[in-house]
Specification:
It contains ten helices and 13 strands. The chain is of the alpha/beta class and about 350 residues long. The protein has three domains: about 140 residues, Nucleotidyltransferase, domain 5 (2-Layer Sandwich), CATH 3.30.420.40; about 55 residues, Dna Ligase, domain 1 (2-Layer Sandwich); about 100 residues, 2-Layer Sandwich (Nucleotidyltransferase, domain 5). Strands 3-2-1-4-8 form a five-stranded mixed sheet. A hairpin with a 4-residue loop joins β9 and β10. The longest helix is centred in the C-terminal third of the chain and has 27 residues. It is globular and about 60 Å long. The chain starts with a strand and ends with a helix. It comes from Candidatus Gottesmanbacteria bacterium RIFCSPLOWO2_01_FULL_39_12b. InterPro entries: ATPase_NBD (IPR043129), FtsA/MreB (IPR050696), PilM (IPR005883), SHS2_FtsA (IPR003494). This is SHS2 domain-containing protein. One of its GO terms (biological process) is cell division.
Amino acid sequence: MSKILIGLDIGTHSIKAVQIARNKASNILMAAGFISTPINTLNVNNSNDEKILGDSINRLVNDMKISTVEVSASLPSSRVITHIIEVPLMSEKELSSSIQWEAEQYIPWQLSNVKIDYVIIDQNLDTKKMKVLIVAAPIKLIEQYMRIMTLAGLTPVAIETEILATARAIGRCLPTLTNVLIVNIGGNGSEIALMRDHILIFTKSLPIGGTIFTKAISEELGFEHVQAEEYKKTYGLDSDKLEGKIAKIINPFIINLFEEIEKTIAYFKEQYQNEKVSTAVLTGGSTKLPGLVLATTKNLGLDSQICNPFSCLSVDPKILPIITPDSPIYTTAVGLGLKEI
């Protein structure tokens, strides 16, 4: 019998959903869709805002003709602490009892108001050290998202951060790649992450995203937001189009992003001296920026590709050409839909 789950990614610009049926033989995409986010999800602070979001999600899943109510949803990375710590080698039981004290140094909130989750990502018998990935989210935020799911007529069975879901989808879609750099460029920010042997070992958030690109174009050229957005999507980093005006405006932000990526790669080389990162996987709504893949390859010296999360799913050939152009925006949703419950 198949396990059917909705993967729901509530972004600042759009809400993405997929319905995936999983069985021993395959993972089947049953439905996919997205709508514009009706309000700023970073400023949802009352019951009316929650209802507006819940109603929008309800319309989306109804339009998709989704047949289940169980949902796995993501929390915005900008409101969650994700950190990797190094601690002395210890047993699971010892780590469980000490994780609160270890996490306290990295979490700027009262621990009584936070839900902490963790996973051991590396153990070194020579140095007697272990690395632990810690994820901390405000309990109020989790409860808020649970209420929104309920208002949408759904049953929340899991909530996790965007980057964990994104890494899961990329790991499933690119199983032969061992060391992968993930660059997730969303509307309000970007996230850089490293996967080693399909395990997330590093993550960092940056306030660089599509909205900033559009705002810069609007201010520099005196365009309305809609026109600036269209120019960004059409010309991007292509220096041969429109005398390279759009590329010149966006480039400083991209260079800043690449500088942070280079620091991340340097960190990997320092930690794993006999290994290397050879592939960059780009995902997120701003990934389709013209010229971005070429710029990534040229500046970082890595094989670069845009993630297609549908490549690891069984998809009806009739709808595949329809959803493929928007595939990068679904990476987090697919990762959520593939979560083991």
